[in-house]
Amino acid sequence: MATGHLRTALWLAELGLPAMPLRAGKLPFGNCRACTRSACGDRPHMLAAGPCQCPAPCHAWGAATADPDVLISAAWAGAWRQAAAVAYHPGGAGLTVVDLDNAEAVAWARQNLPATKTVPTTRGEHWIYRGTLRSVNGVRPGVDLKSTMAYAQWRGPGTGTIVALPEVVRALAVKESTAIRPEPGTVTVPPPVGGGECRHRSPAYLERGIAMAEQRIKEAAEAIHKTVYRTFLAVLSAHGRCGCLTDAHIGRLFTAAQEKGESLRHCEAAWTNALTSLGM
């Protein structure tokens, strides 16, 4: 018998929205371990709005599908039994979600963005537009853009009529992408992650780098999303390709970010975006 969340996912699939289950905390199920952090190379599939071709349901946003046979397959059964919510992949349906995370962000949107379909969330609203772009977190305080290579929790059908993605939103994505892109020449092409000789002279070098990153996050007075992302980017640029980073190091960075109010979801998204920006 289908669970309520599975029934919702099947309904979304009928509407052409690639759906996926979420576990507690609005986190995706791991599914195929080979797909973690896009290790399976699923990005080309997403750019074509197609599914990952892995033998198991892909990882995170790559698992979203509008194929009802996949949604009801045995490979998904355990996930649906444990699911706490349903998400969908906006980019796979040709959509962009402007995720407004607080009242101030909602007020900004009402003053600056054209009216479109609006969905209430726990702390703010989702504004949904027709068209896709690169997903970017923290384009301004309390505002994330979710489209390709991202998922958004299904909060209901909302109200209003979807309109075309406005230039003001596209401009935000381009501005943020330009602002956070590493300077040309600062990132070399080293050995694969974890596969090269460690270039750090002592464990103290790595420890100092992690401690400085923690401090940078803790001292951030504003633009927390952007600070967390840029800090993750800096750590990965310096330490991510030689295999020195451990789960304990990453956990320290996530803890510092969560103590500043970042959700685990935002931490995972920022880490994945940093990996993608560096080609890891």
Explained architecture:
This protein is α+β, with helices and mostly antiparallel strands and 280 residues long. Helix content is 40%, strand content 14%. It has 10 helices and 10 strands. The radius of gyration is 19 Å and the shape is globular. The protein starts with a helix and ends with a helix. The strands form 2 sheets. Strands 4, 5, 6, 7, 8 and 10 form a 6-stranded mixed β-sheet that branches. The protein has a 4-stranded antiparallel β-sheet with strand order 2-1-3-9.
What structural keywords apply?
single chain, 280 residues, alpha+beta, six-stranded mixed β-sheet, four-stranded antiparallel β-sheet, 10 helices
Short recap of the structure:
With 280 residues, the chain is α+β, with helices and mostly antiparallel strands. It has helices at residues 4-14, 43-47, 68-71, 74-82, 103-112, 167-180, 203-218, 224-239, 247-259, 264-277, and strands at 19-23, 27-28, 85-88, 95-100, 117-120, 125-130, 136-140, 143-146, 152-153, 163-164. The model is unreliable at 42-51 and 177-197 (pLDDT under 50).
